Amino acid sequence: MHIHYCYYSNVFTLSLLCSTHLEKSLQMLMDRVDDMSQDIVKYNNYCRSLSKQQQQKHQYIQRRQQENAQRQSRGEPLLPEEDLSKMFKPPQPPPRMDTLLIASQINTYCQTIKEFTSQNLGKLFMAEALQGTSS
């Protein structure tokens, strides 16, 4: 890492040549956050469709029980049992491994950015302190 100190009329400027590293890390972090957002939308859609299907299954069972109660009161044979798992197949959940990997990448980018900025902020404060004592 290279640090350039420039003094112009008692104004201190700290220029970091590694700003491209920080910029790339931030861009990659934003891309991963966008990916995570898309995965969250997929998961929310899955939860909605699962809930809707469970509600439909519950309504079907209630209608069937009502129909059987009416048939029994009329002396008719009950409706035959049906395999509900074939009628109501649950939707496929979104893959969780992808989301876990994205979360890990986000954590890594955050740690990298944190380390990079904390090192450079320390150098900036030291340089400012030196600037203050020399004037």
How is this fold's topology laid out?
Layout: E1 3-8, E2 11-16, H1 19-74, H2 84-87, H3 96-134
Antiparallel strand pairs: 1-2
Helix pairs in contact: 1-3
Relative strand content: 5-15%
Low-confidence stretches: 1-17
How far is the N terminus from the C terminus?
A: 26 Å
Structural class: mainly alpha
Count every helix, treating DSSP H or I runs of 4 or more residues as helices.
3
Please provide the count of β strands.
2
- How confident overall, as mean pLDDT? 83
Give me the side-by-side strand order of the main sheet: 1-2
Name the helix and strand elements from N-terminus to C-terminus, one letter apiece. EEHHH
Radius of gyration: 31 Å
> Given the C-alpha coordinates, what overall shape results?
rod-shaped
Largest sheet: 2 strands, antiparallel
Q: Helicity, in percent?
A: over 70%
Describe the protein's architecture and organization:
There is one protein chain. This protein is mainly alpha-helical and 135 residues long. The chain has three helices and two strands. The protein has helices at residues 19-74, 84-87, 96-134, and strands at residues 3-8, 11-16. Strands 1-2 form a two-stranded antiparallel sheet. Strand 1 (3-8) and strand 2 form a beta hairpin. Helix 1 runs antiparallel to helix 3 (96-134). It is rod-shaped and about 105 Å long. It starts with a strand and ends with a helix.
